[in-house]
Amino acid sequence: AEPVRVKDEL
Amino acid sequence: MNLFRLVADLSHLASIFILLHKIQTTRSCRGISIKTQLLYVLVFVTRYLDLFTGDFVSIYNSVMKLFFIGSSCYIIYLMRIKYKPTNDPSIDTFRLEYILGPTAVLALIFNYKFTFLEVLWAFSIYLEAVAILPQLFMLQRTGEAETITTHYLAALGIYRGLYIPNWIYRYFTEGGAIDPIAVVAGIVQTALYVDFFYVYFTKVLQGQKFELPA
């Protein structure tokens, strides 16, 4: 799993 | 967007409307921690700065962000100005520096990029995780709550809880994508509601008043 900042969440 | 997140966001919206309804109909903000509400303003303002940086996601996303910023400020207006006499600071005694200090340090250490926006984003995530503490502390101190206030807290708790299956769903449908900062903070945040939900389910939903054992 790659750490990614989920930009579409509130 | 998946169903978990949609219902979570709707539950978050509902919580705000429940809180507004409580304040407007009782013409009082008794039982509501203004410290928690101030922290939410800070959470939304620091997280949604991306509204102004051109990182457009969707109309839904932008409208929700604007709503959360606007409604949280409006709630402060109601508590600080319109219904000020019903606000009792003597029971809202959680020290904000215990929250702001550690979350600011965490954000400076654990962030995805050491830039102004990313540090503030991480700060808002950590801050949201613990922003409910002054409210829960106040509940603990008074040992009771109006039923409508407990519905507000339940809707907030459901919102946070549903983000967890949302992340699990996303992990499997989006090729192992994981946002560790959001996930760890989200699990902590949800865990803070466990005690509350125990009383909510065993008392409030059985038609009794929310009262903590003495």
UniProtKB/TrEMBL annotation, chain B:
InterPro entries cross-referenced by the UniProt entry: ER_ret_rcpt
Compartment(s) of residence: Endoplasmic reticulum membrane
Top-rank taxon, per record: Eukaryota
GO molecular function, one term: ER retention sequence binding
Membrane topology designation: Multi-pass membrane protein
GO annotation terms (biological process): protein retention in ER lumen; protein transport; vesicle-mediated transport
Gene Ontology terms: cellular component: endoplasmic reticulum membrane
TM ranges: 59-77, 98-114, 120-139, 151-169, 181-201
Record keywords, A-Z: Endoplasmic reticulum, ER-Golgi transport, Membrane, Protein transport, Receptor, Transmembrane, Transmembrane helix, Transport
Family assignment from sequence similarity: Belongs to the ERD2 family.
Protein name (Swiss-Prot/TrEMBL): ER lumen protein-retaining receptor
Species of provenance: Botryobasidium botryosum (strain FD-172 SS1)
